[in-house]
User: What shape does this take?
Amino acid sequence: MRFTKEIVLDQPIERVRVLTSDPAHVHHWQPDLVSITQHGENPGAAGSTATLTYRKFSLEETVLAATADERTSRYETRGMVHTITNRYSAIDAHTTRLVCDSEIELSGLLKLGRKLLEKSLREQSERNLDNFKAFIDAG
Assistant: This one.
């Protein structure tokens, strides 16, 4: 399953870059996040890995690419791989466009509940993006 969501953030792109480059801020838009365990010295850099522990599950994150304007990460857990590409662009000096492309692949037993699970995963991703916008816009 693939989907894209675009949002406009009420902050300059430089401020958005600062807030999104530090993994310590993730809990602001993902309230179920309990902890992040970094596996290396350069959190958020291309090639870095981390374990994200949520209330009900854990994800293994691998940052596939990271530049000032684009970041692609792969999140894996048993039966699911979710790849997210976030692209930032300045609209003007005070606003930033974020285009978020997601691809979710299910395998094993998770494929049995594919329709319901895909709907739930998409809703959760979009809710996280809405929470992200609220956090960024609050500045």
Remarks:
- Residues 110 and 116 are 10 Å apart (CA to CA).
- Helices lie at 13-21, 114-138.
